[in-house]
């Protein structure tokens, strides 16, 4: 089987990394606790709640050199992905940020550093349209993935986050990957 795994908020903890940088750079600004996040995109919740100036604050953090490379791994994700890769073809399938030149290169660096080898870099596919990628399963946190292909070749399995809990018609892996073997028994 071919398994595609998103990076941000699936293997790399984008939410924790963003909150850490927001609190470090702007300790006096309000923030939204993870359990209260209701939208996939930060801007869609922060800007209406705290004002238009948050658009630039979010952009400042996301486009900062080193941001993507410094994201902590999601607990359990690396071990689970390595175990899946022992029996199946695993590719990371991620969309770089359009606003920065750093995110694409840093995603390659993150994969190499966290998974321990340059051979893992070869397993990274960067695309703005995941529907064009062939595979059997796409593990992702985005509630709805749309693009040029109306019915992608893969089945989407969600990684559970507060902002995607309204989706009830997809298999769901816990944030910490603790239940992946029960959710995806065909990968064992």
**Strand content range:** 5-15%
Q: Which strand order does the major sheet show?
A: 3-2-1-4-5-6
Separation of the first and last Cα atoms? 11 Å
Largest β-sheet summary: 6 strands, parallel
Would you identify the regions where 5 or more consecutive residues have pLDDT less than 50? Answer: none
SS field, number of helical segments: 6
What is the level 1 CATH name of the largest domain? Alpha Beta
Tally of structural domains: 2
| CATH superfamily annotation of the largest domain | HAD superfamily/HAD-like
Envelope shape: globular
Determine Rg (CA atoms, Å). Answer: 16 Å
Mean pLDDT, to the nearest integer, reads: 96
**Do you know the CATH topology of the largest domain?**
Rossmann fold
How many E-type strands?
6
Structural class: alpha/beta
Estimate the helix proportion, in percent: 25-40%
Give a structural overview.
This protein is α/β, with parallel strands linked by helices and 188 residues long. The protein has 2 domains: 2-13 and 73-187, Rossmann fold (3-Layer(aba) Sandwich), CATH 3.40.50; 14-62. The chain contains 6 helices and 6 strands, in the order βααααβαββββα. The protein has a 6-stranded parallel beta sheet, with helices on one face. α5 links the parallel β2 (89-94) and β3 (124-126). The radius of gyration is 16 Å and the shape is globular. The mean pLDDT is 96.
